[in-house]
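Reviewers of the previous submission asked for a worked example of the structure-prediction workflow described in the proposal, so we include one complete record here. The input consisted solely of the amino acid sequence. No template or homolog information was supplied to the procedure at any stage.
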Amino acid sequence: MTYTSLKLLLFLPAVLLLYRSVPLRHRWLVLLAGSLVFYALNASPAVLLFFLVHAMVSYGCGLLVQKHRTRTVLFCSIAVSALPLVLIKVLPAGSIIVPLGISFYSMQLIAWLADLYRGKAEIPQNPLRFLLFVSWFPQIIQGPIPRYEQLNVQLQEGHAYNDDELNEAVFLILWGLFLKLMIADRAAPFVNEVFDHYTLYSGMYFWAAALLYSVQLYTDFLSCVRLCQGISLLFGIRLAENFNRPYQAKSVREFWQRWHMSLSAWLRDYIYIPLGGSRKGRSRRWFNIIIVFLVSGFWHGRGLNYLCWGLMHAFFEIAEDVLGKRRPASVCLTFLCVLAGWVVFRAPGLRAAFAIFRSLFLNLQPVVLFDGSLLRLGMDGKDTVVLLLCLGLLFTVERFGAEDLSAAFRTLSPWKRGLLAMLMITAVYVFGVYGHGFTAAGFIYGGF
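From that input alone, the workflow returned the following structure tokens.
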């Protein structure tokens, strides 16, 4: 049951109706029950049991950290909570149970233990309240990665109906569906065909596929964040922001301040700063940057290409640090660096990535741009037209910001909002999902 599935259209209203029908002080129990049902519907009983045991063991570790408050206890507690995720990343696929959302909720658990040690978080007396923090269903699969102090209070207190929040939530959900079904899933066939069969294509195909992948990955992840935020806001609960127009960054460092912001902040607060940050000299700072991006690459996947992708971004940041004020602040140059990283990130392996890079610069064959085959690859004419129009809308919104659109939507009269919402839903499901065998693909970051 993904966030774009019809099953969610049945599940979500039922939970929301129950949530609104019970007293405020008991509404957290509805959220917990809904989260566990959501998890059970998306995982086997064994996976659900694994998740529950993992969460409760971490809760027990938190009790030890609160009682003893020593670095040894903290380190051992973090090691216990992180062990399942580490094993999943290093052991062969299929040799261990993979709990749903483990890459995201493991980060929550580690951050909570560290904050508990620092006195920035607390441990709830009722373990079920802690379980709700870990299992909150709109964000468990793909984030954002919440901090305890950001999310827990919102989950525990009941929220009364708020018309402005409802309108904002509807807009976020509609915008998320548009990004996913009209752009990300439409770019996917072309991207998958070229990268997965890289030996059959040449340079200009790879340039087009790399550009489309940068859009696909961004809109796919952004759409999930908007859907998660919208669904959560239906219950009066706000999730943290995760993107801030990352492709408008003028440096790679700034890019990471705008892209997957909750992960970047987690790596900064729980890896970079504990290692010493920039307090121990330039060389130590560079070493810390390399460790941070290696951890980021390891978190994203088990292949060497993910580690190389992380090292590339470490190199870019160190190069920017070396150049200092001599470094040109350029959106285009930053995007090209990020694009090179996405090629390594998406390629089936390192050998494929090297072959693609060679073809990108040594085998351009520009004639394919004019024979019509490039734009039709993996898509028919309707797909191409819809994708281009939607990309134009996306670039316009990115230029001026989606906040203005959201505010304008909320200021409309109720009947105009309803009519516009119905038109948007119809457009998304008519133009976003059609054609023989076409289904909404799973979210990319759900695989990490």
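Confidence is low (pLDDT under 50) at residues 367-371, 434-441. We consider this example representative of the routine output the project will generate in years two and three.
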